[in-house]
Design brief:
about 700 residues; alpha/beta; six-stranded mixed β-sheet; six-stranded parallel β-sheet; 21 strands; binds adenosine-5'-triphosphate
Length: about 700
């Protein structure tokens, strides 16, 4: 038979199996719906029964409905290519691999879940170690239709006469395909070195390093899906959190887990880790460096203990006809004494009241002594402690503190100087005060970690008012229930597994924020030191180690193959970062396209036309997405130049927000600007240069970036 006919015949064979799978899926769906209906029926019945029977019937109903809903949720997930693989092994058995495990009515496997041990050979078998696999087949579907098949033969001697082999490599075909707006899962083509990381033990800390495009993000997400499948009991309760660098990034990866049937993983950008608030803008690099530094912890602690701006500076209260007066210095002494006990101020109101009453009693004793009188100290404390005017004073003198309020206090440079004496430099203080005084932009990403730190330092506000004010800017309030999966209680901020992507960029304060959410968690930490934009790696490493705690199990994997960029594009990126990477830190790009990056000299005034022309050209050259990457402070300007052009396929993104993203083609504007706007310039440029899968055009008015 000719190759196309063989291929058609093989596609037809797989189509008949896929049809069986979908027919069975429909049956299972009907069964689950019937179970749910029955559950509701029991519920109705219970309403007519005696009270003691009701409880157990309602419980039974809840369980039935719950299980039915769970099953329906799994069956209803939008599986693109439910069945994607087939293993023909030395024995008679053929295993189909898919996103979900499905058995037929006789309990025979129709599809094996890709995470099950029986599917492991699909990823782990190689020609050197075939693991009894004769032929591995990748099946490509669109909806329920089989489009193509692609085979690898792993044990050539064992291929029976009637076994056909077609295709020339599913991986290369997948890598060459156009990219859409969202990242796709890679279940069908996970490589052996990646599979090892995905299936690594769940406890402790699993670090994944590797250069751009090596699949770190993809692997981390598949690992989350794998861990939930294998260890749902251990991890399902408190859940899994995935932290990414930006909202653009979490949006980009948002389809990957649902496409594998996992809908109970929370994805949060660093600016969204704190419930009820969302920050999207980056501070300029020097300011972000101050806000992210561990030194801020000391500053925040002192700021929180300072006298609140509106607190009264004098107390007067009448007791038995005499005015007892505490001046500013005395009140300060009382405040220091209360803070001297440590602990969160929002939990210290009773102690504040007691200490203040003691100070008033001292004062009364002092007056009495001068007049040669005595007073009953205990009686005074009890009497004043019950007085409404005392409590009115206390409320304003020791107010409930809210993180946002205290952080804004730092906009007052004198106050900040008090808090940051001997901790921050003069310039750092001015920079920080100016940022906190400027409310035009709302909170920045770096501020979120400071707010979270303060939240813990000051303790929760009393319950009654807590809900109305996690005290975050009204326009930034988001319904936190939206982000929280149904199974987790609101404002519960512990997780059992945390995935941190682009971890090389977390500031020490951000590590503290994330670490707090994983006190008892196991971790998957993804990063590439060469792409780091954080200026003080040792400080970040220290904070990171603290976040993990003293865990013994710590394993590190390095991925070495760049699956994203064509070799031609990666060669240019490698050249730019050469002096900033250690030997062996750069990955190896596997795909040659014959298309070298275009470097175009422009005049600064001609940038607009040059960007428009380049974008248009690339939109015509590729089927998928085109990214225009520029310096952070030019995003709006460049966005304006491109308004109205192929909206969904064309995106403008700032250098720092380009982290983790990818496009079929990229226009990179003024690379030298990317270097100068950041403290780790060349690395940021390296990130930008490694975003394109197929074509890259660089528009530059100078050549400094190539030096
Ligand atoms: N085994 C694979 N099969 C198919 N595609 C793959 C495979 N591994 C990686 N890819 C693809 O390569 C691209 C890069 O992957 P990913 O974004 O996970 O890399 P990364 O290491 O996180 O990159 P960066 O550090 O630059 O953000 C993605 O399009 C991903 O789908």
């Amino acid at each position: 038979m000719s190759e196309p006919r063989v291929r058609r015949a093989e596609i037809a064979i797989e189509q008949s199996h896929v049809d069986r799978v979908y027919a069975r899926l429909a049956e299972l769906r009907t069964q689950a719906e019937a179970m749910r209906a029955k559950g509701y029926e029991i519920g109705h019945g219970a309403q007519r029964e005696a009270v003691f029977e009701q409880a157990s019937m309602l419980f039974e109903r809840d369980m039935m409905v719950y299980h039915a809903n769970q099953t329906l949720q799994t069956l209803d997930a939008e599986y693109e290519g439910l069945v994607f693989g087939r293993l023909d092994q030395l024995g008679p058995e053929t295993v189909y691999v898919g996103r979900l495990g499905i058995r037929d009515a006789e309990f025979e496997n129709l599809v094996t879940d890709w995470r099950a041990p029986a599917a492991a050979a699909f990823y782990q078998a190689t020609a050197e170690e075939p693991m009894d696999v004769v032929r591995r087949r990748v099946i490509r579907c669109s909806g329920q239709a089989v489009l193509d098949v692609d085979d690898d033969v792993l044990t050539p001697d064992a291929v029976p006469d009637d076994m056909n082999v077609v295709g020339e490599g599913a991986l290369m075909a997948a890598l060459g395909r156009a990219r859409g707006e969202k990242m796709r899962d890679i279940v069908a083509t996970i490589q052996k070195e990646q599979d090892e990381v995905i299936r690594a033990p769940w406890r402790g800390v699993t670090e994944i390093t590797g250069g751009p495009g090596t699949g770190k993000t993809a692997v981390a997400l598949h690992r989350a899906a794998y861990l939930l499948y294998r260890y749902r009991r251990q991890l399902g309760g408190a859940g899994v959190l995935v932290v990414g660098p930006s909202g653009v990034f979490t949006n980009y990866i948002s389809r990957v887990l649902p496409s594998m049937g996992e809908t109970n993983v929370e994805l949060r950008a660093l600016g969204q880790v704190l419930d009820g608030i969302e920050a999207t803008h980056h501070d300029p690099a020097p300011l972000a460096a101050v806000k992210g530094s561990l030194r801020m912890r000391k500053v925040l602690l002192k700021a929180m203990r300072d006298t609140p701006p509106d607190a009264p500076t004098e107390m007067r209260i009448v007791y038995q006809g005499e005015v007892l007066k505490l001046g500013a210095k005395e009140l300060e002494r009382v405040r220091r004494k209360v803070h001297g006990h440590g602990g969160p101020p929002n939990r210290a109101r009773v102690r504040a009241a007691e200490t203040l009453l003691e100070a008033l009693a001292d004062k009364a004793e002092e007056y009495a002594k001068a007049d040669d009188r005595t007073i009953d100290r205990q009686e005074l404390i009890t009497a004043l402690g019950e007085r409404i005017d005392f409590h009115r004073f206390l409320v304003v003198w020791w107010p409930v503190l809210y993180p946002a309020e205290v952080l804004r206090w730092l906009g007052d440079e004198r106050r900040l100087t008090r808090a940051a004496k001997r901790v921050l430099s003069r310039e750092e203080i001015s920079l920080l005060a100016a940022s906190m005084a400027d409310r035009s932009q709302g909170w920045s990403m770096a501020d979120i970690a400071l707010l979270d730190e303060l939240r813990v330092l000051m303790g929760p506000p009393p319950k009654r008012r807590r809900r109305q004010r996690l005290e975050l800017d009204a326009e930034q309030q988001r319904d936190s229930r939206e982000q929280t999966t149904r199974s987790r209680p609101e404002h519960y901020d512990e997780y059992s597994h945390i995935v941190v992507d682009e971890s090389q960029d977390l500031s020490p304060m951000q590590w503290r924020m994330v670490g707090r959410r994983g006190k008892y968690a196991s971790w998957t930490v993804v990063g590439d030191p060469v792409q780091s934009s954080w200026p003080d790696p040792p400080e970040a490493a220290q904070a990171r180690d603290q976040a993990f705690g003293a865990r013994t199990a710590r394993r590190r994997y390095t991925l070495r193959t760049n699956y994203r960029n064509s070799a031609e594009i990666f060669d240019l990126a490698a050249r730019v970062v050469a002096g900033h990477a250690e030997e062996g830190e750069l990955p190896h790009a596997v795909r040659r396209t014959g298309l070298v990056p275009q470097l175009k000299a422009i005049e600064p005034e001609g940038a607009e036309t040059a960007v428009q022309t380049a974008a248009k050209e690339l939109l015509g050259a590729v089927d998928g997405t085109v990214g225009v990457i520029c310096a952070m402070n030019r995003v709006d300007e460049v966005g304006g130049w491109l308004e109205g052009q192929a909206e969904e396929r064309l995106k403008v993104v700032g250098s720092l927000d380009a982290k983790g993203l990818e496009y079929d083609a990229v226009v990179l504007l003024e690379p030298t600007e990317l270097i100068t706007e950041s403290l780790t310039g060349r690395r940021v440029l390296y990130v930008a240069l490694t975003r394109a899968t197929q074509q890259l055009t660089v528009l530059a008015s100078d050549e400094d970036w190539l030096a």
